[in-house]
Design brief:
- The longest helix has 18 residues.
- The protein contains twelve helices and no strands.
- Helices cover 61% and strands 0% of the residues.
- By secondary structure, it is mainly alpha-helical.
- The relative contact order is 0.11.
- It has two domains: 102 residues, Hypothetical protein, domain 2 (Endonuclease III, domain 1, Orthogonal Bundle), CATH 1.10.340; 81 residues, Helix-hairpin-Helix base-excision DNA repair enzymes (C-terminal) (Endonuclease Iii, domain 2, Orthogonal Bundle), CATH 1.10.1670.10.
Amino acid sequence: MGWFAANVPAPKSELNFQSPFQLLVAVILSAQCTDKRVNMVTPALFQAYPDAKAMADASVEDILGYIKSISYPNSKAAHLSGMAKKLAEDFGGEVPSDRELLRTLPGVGLKTANVVTSIAFDNPVIAVDTHVFRVAHRTGLSDAKTPDKVSAELEKNIPAKDRATAHHWLILHGRYICTARSPKCGSCGISQWCRYFKESTSALSK
């Protein structure tokens, strides 16, 4: 992680939000969808429903009207409605900072809870999406078979003080450098420590 600390000192989420509630909404919408698309949809959505109470008072159909261009809009509209209602009824409209409490909300699994608590509350957890999963496996940071187990391994081996930042380092590295197809190993700052790079260059030299 030393290379990232020296070369990417202040990584941040590419989702646009102004509160923990808006972050939670954006992260739910981002499942199997690009941050760019989510950021195109959320300005109007947040203007209509700036907080949990406002969204809780809306119908699923009303919410759906704002997110039709998002992947799986029907299920996500239902999740947003249920999430907002539970926040309003059980948490006074405030997003809880505790990961396990967050997971009691509709549409919130471990990855979403980790993202929100990491970004909004600086909790020492690491969310594992497809980018983090790929980077962890290629570099040799983890060989675990599921995102939850990769998350547990990363949290075990990365100091608590670095985890919130490491989450962004790994996501952005996977999104722009260690891409699923044709990874940019030639411009990768951590290739000298990467198992995938070493195995690839070794195979080419034979």
